């Protein structure tokens, strides 16, 4: 049940990510057209907006990658054939991701407080708009990696020994 809820949430993040990437094309296209054609004037706020959207895209993409198991995991040694060693490998990776997630979530709150007193140069937008991505991503990294760790533990406890 929890896995379905988290998967649905991740699918929602995928939709949001697609919308943000689509939205990112607008200020980037405006920058390119303004710089190389002169059809429209150069608007400096488009660069700030592109940066803000890009930060959100990166952080949401990293959260999705944690759910999919395609990020933060570099295969240094071959995947173990024995269930116990395979679980240990997953525990090290997922435990590390969860630990960094807790760190980002906890200290990210101070980062957001710092952003609350800052404003961007051109748009005058509060910087907390982008700084809040750090604790959000950290929280979701923690939740997703702990759930994946739970799944790995359930696989370890299952009676069937599968070698691949």
Short descriptors:
0% strand; mainly alpha; 164 residues; 5 helices
Textual characterization of the structure:
With 164 residues, the protein is mostly helical. It has one domain (2-157). Helix content is 74%, strand content 0%. The chain has five helices and no strands. It has helices spanning 2-36, 45-68, 83-116, 128-131, 133-157. It starts with a helix and ends in a 7-residue tail after the last helix. The model has no long low-confidence stretch (mean pLDDT 90).
What is the overall number of helices? 5
Oligomer: single chain
Biggest pleated-sheet summary: none
What number is the mean pLDDT?
Answer: 90
The global form is: elongated
| DSSP helix fraction | over 70%
Order of helices and strands: HHHHH
The residue ranges in which pLDDT falls below 50 over 5 or more consecutive positions are none
| Terminal-residue CA separation | 28 Å
Please count the beta strands (DSSP E, at least 2 residues each): 0
Structural class: mainly alpha
Radius of gyration: 20 Å
Quick overview of this protein structure:
It is built from five helices and no strands. With 164 residues, it is mostly helical.
Helix and strand layout, with pairings?
Elements lengths: L1 H35 L8 H24 L14 H34 L11 H4 L1 H25 L7
Helix pairs in contact: 1-2, 2-5, 3-5
């Amino acid at each position: 049940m929890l896995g379905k809820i988290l998967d649905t949430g991740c699918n929602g993040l995928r939709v949001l990510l697609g919308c943000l990437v689509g939205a990112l094309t607008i200020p980037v296209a405006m920058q390119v057209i303004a710089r190389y054609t002169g059809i429209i004037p150069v608007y400096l706020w488009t660069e700030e907006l592109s940066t803000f959207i890009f930060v959100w895209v990166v952080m949401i993409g990293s959260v999705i990658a944690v759910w999919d198991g395609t990020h933060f995991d570099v295969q240094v040694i071959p995947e173990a054939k024995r269930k116990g060693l395979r679980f240990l490998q997953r525990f090290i990776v997922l435990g590390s991701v969860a630990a960094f997630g807790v760190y980002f979530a906890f200290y990210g709150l101070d980062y957001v407080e710092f952003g609350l007193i800052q404003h961007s140069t051109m748009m005058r937008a509060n910087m907390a708009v982008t700084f809040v991505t750090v604790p959000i991503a950290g929280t979701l990294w923690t939740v997703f990696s702990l759930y994946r760790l739970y799944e790995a533990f359930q696989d370890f406890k299952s009676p069937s020994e599968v070698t691949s």
